[in-house]
């Protein structure tokens, strides 16, 4: 593999500028790509245990540059983003004899990336880490931008920090081992990026989305890069989510509440919850006269065409209480001084942040989505 064939995207923040490296089978060449970061340093790989068969490839590659490599496995699933695992990892990593120059590598999906990043932010008051995301969802979203954290009993990602990685390595071929449901979950986040900022990208997805999902690596890489550039552009302007970065949460206020209601039991994947949340955000936009039915119909049609859920009944009948969903939404990180902010589409490719939406309108929508199913 020629290193010259690797594409890059630069993420610029106040803390640091770093590159996302895109390519096929580049985990095998991680030592070459990451040499400037890991050479002669102590490396600890935090990996998802489902990737045990792929771990050896990464260990061999990293060992060619690093002074020593230790690997620690964590179970999959949102329940792993806990205080217990935070404590377990900190103590286990300290025991290896790390110093301030040591580097953690997150090898897994968003759960592993969020947890590893948070550990890196607190160990020795902050050490560097590298993201090697292994799901489409984490490649286009959670591995970029420095949001790290664990979950609270009151909601998702309520305990954490902003801690930017020093590099992200995005391997398209590693996605081939994912099942179609996991691919679709990541694709929902890709669509989200197009809906908040780039209508032309949405039109491109309407044309190419099915082939992206089926496994066309060239198209996958192209759409992942486009999504990453949208996110990096927003992060550059608002690293700590004081304003426009909140737009990246389109669909998440509803989605996170759905996940929390189900206690992260695996019934619904994050991207599926976001997919349903995006449709609900468009419906809320119609109720508040913010966007047209035509735009909702276009988005719904594309979701249906590629197989993304547009309503809860397509996934589960476990959610019974609109009032409980509403209560869980109050714990959302976008709540400020008791006022919940919503990301509302104005049209495809443009969204805005809305405050003080009448709770009765939201409850009406929730009732329609849950009670009338």
Please give the structural blueprint.
Blueprint: E1 7-12, E2 17-23, H1 30-33, H2 35-38, E3 42-48, H3 52-63, E4 68-74, H4 83-95, E5 103-108, H5 110-122, E6 128-133, H6 136-142, E7 147-152, E8 155-162, E9 167-171, H7 180-197, H8 199-214, H9 217-237, H10 252-261, H11 270-287, H12 293-306, H13 322-329, E10 335-336, E11 339-340, E12 342-347, E13 350-354, H14 359-370
Parallel strand pairs: 2-9, 3-4, 3-5, 5-6, 6-9
Antiparallel strand pairs: 1-2, 7-8, 10-11, 12-13
Helix pairs in contact: 4-5, 6-7, 6-9, 7-8, 7-9, 7-11, 8-9, 10-11, 10-13, 11-12, 11-14, 13-14
Protein described:
This protein has helices spanning 30-33, 35-38, 52-63, 83-95, 110-122, 136-142, 180-197, 199-214, 217-237, 252-261, 270-287, 293-306, 322-329, 359-370; strands at residues 7-12, 17-23, 42-48, 68-74, 103-108, 128-133, 147-152, 155-162, 167-171, 335-336, 339-340, 342-347, 350-354. The strands form four sheets. The protein has a seven-stranded mixed sheet, with helices on both faces. Strands 7-8 form a two-stranded antiparallel ribbon. Strands 10-11 form a two-stranded antiparallel ribbon. It folds into two domains: 3-177, Rossmann fold (3-Layer(aba) Sandwich), CATH 3.40.50.1970; 181-370, Dehydroquinate synthase-like - alpha domain (Dehydroquinate synthase-like, alpha domain). It contains 14 helices and 13 strands. Helix 4 crosses helix 5 (110-122) and helix 11 (270-287) runs antiparallel to helix 12. It is an alpha/beta fold.
């Amino acid at each position: 593999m020629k290193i010259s064939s690797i594409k890059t995207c630069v993420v610029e923040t106040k803390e640091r500028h770093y590159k996302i490296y895109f390519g096929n089978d580049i985990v095998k060449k991680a030592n070459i790509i990451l040499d400037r970061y890991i050479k002669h340093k102590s490396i600890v790989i935090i990996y998802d245990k489902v990737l045990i068969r792929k771990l050896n490839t990464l260990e061999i590659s990293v060992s060619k540059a690093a002074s020593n490599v230790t690997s620690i496995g964590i179970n999959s699933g949102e329940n792993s983003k806990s205080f217990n695992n935070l404590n377990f990892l900190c103590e286990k990593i300290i025991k290896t004899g790390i110093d301030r120059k040591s580097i953690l590598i997150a090898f897994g999906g968003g759960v592993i990336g969020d947890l590893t990043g948070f550990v890196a932010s607190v160990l020795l008051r902050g050490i560097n880490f590298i993201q090697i995301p292994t799901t489409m969802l984490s490649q286009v979203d959670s591995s970029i931008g420095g949001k790290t954290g664990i979950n609270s009993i009151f909601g998702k990602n309520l305990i954490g920090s902003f801690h930017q990685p020093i590099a992200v390595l995005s391997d398209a071929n590693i996605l081939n081992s994912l099942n179609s449901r996991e691919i679709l979950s990541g694709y929902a986040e890709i669509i989200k990026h197009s809906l908040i900022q780039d209508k032309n990208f949405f039109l491109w997805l309407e044309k190419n989305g099915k082939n992206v999902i089926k496994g066309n690596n060239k198209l996958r890489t192209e759409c992942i890069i486009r999504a990453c550039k949208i996110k990096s552009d927003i992060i550059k302007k608002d690293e700590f989510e004081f304003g426009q970065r909140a737009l990246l949460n389109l669909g998440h206020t509803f989605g996170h509440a759905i996940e929390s209601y189900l206690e992260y039991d695996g019934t619904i994947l994050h991207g599926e919850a976001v997919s349903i949340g995006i449709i609900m955000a468009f419906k809320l936009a119609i109720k508040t006269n913010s966007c047209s039915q035509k735009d909702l119909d276009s988005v719904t049609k594309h979701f249906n065409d590629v197989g993304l859920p547009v309503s809860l009944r397509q996934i589960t009948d476990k959610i019974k209480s609109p009032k409980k969903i509403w209560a869980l939404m109050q714990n959302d990180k976008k709540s400020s001084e008791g006022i919940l902010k919503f990301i509302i589409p104005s049209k495809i490719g443009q969204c805005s942040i809305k405050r003080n939406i009448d709770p009765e309108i939201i409850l009406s929508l929730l009732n329609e989505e849950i009670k009338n199913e």
